[in-house]
Amino acid sequence: MPTMTLTQTLVMGLLQCVAVLILIFVMVPLLTFAERKVIGYIQVRLGATRTAGGLVGITGALNRGMWSMGKLPVLSILRGLPVFIADILKLILKEDIIPAKAERSVFTLAPIISVMAAFGVFSAIAFFPGVLFTFPAKFPIVGGLPFMGFISDVNVGVLYILGLSSVGVYGIVLGAWASNSKYPLLGGLRSAAQIISYEVPLTLSLLTPVVLAGSLNFKDLSIRLSTGADMHWLGAIPLFVGFLVYTTCGFAETNRTPFDLPEAETELVAGFHTEYSGMKFGFFYLAEYTNMIVVSCFASAFFLGGYYLLPFGLQRLIPASVPFLGQPSILFFFLKVFAILFLFLWVRATLPRYRYDQLMDVGWKWLIPLTLVNLFVAALIRFAF
Amino acid sequence: MSFLRTLIPFDIIGGLTVTGRYFGKVFFSANRKKIRANLAHFTQEYPEVPVKLQPRFRGRLTLLKDEQGEIKCVCCLACEKICPTQVITIEKGKKEGRKMPFPVRYDFEMERCIFCEFCVESCGFDSIILNHQFELAGYNREDFSLGMDGLGHNMFEPSPVGRHSVAED
Question: Count of A–B CB contacts within 8 Å?
Answer without folding.
Answer: 66
